[in-house]
Amino acid sequence: MAWYWNPVMMGIATRAEMDVADQEEIDILNEVAKRKFDLMQPSYDNSGGDW
User: Fold this and answer.
1) What are 39-46's contacts with CB under 8 Å, separation 24+?
2) Would you give the DSSP letter of residue 10?
């Protein structure tokens, strides 16, 4: 069984959707969840933002 909790925790898919997804779909959803997680991280580039 493929690991698929990341898309569920990130709100990308439900557990029911992941239960019926094939490996290609799981890979795509994992990538989307990873990108969403990365975008949610604060930026520390000293560009004068909120930080």
Assistant:
1) none
2) T
Q: What is the token pair recorded at 2?
A: 């493929």
Token pair of 14, please? 């439900």
**Global pTM exceeds 0.85:** no
Question: Which stretches within 1-51 are classed as H helix?
Answer: 5-9, 15-20, 23-40
3 state DSSP class of 41:
coil
Map out the domains of the chain as residue ranges.
Answer: 5-38
- Residue 5: band (very low, low, confident or very high) from pLDDT cuts 50, 70, 90: confident
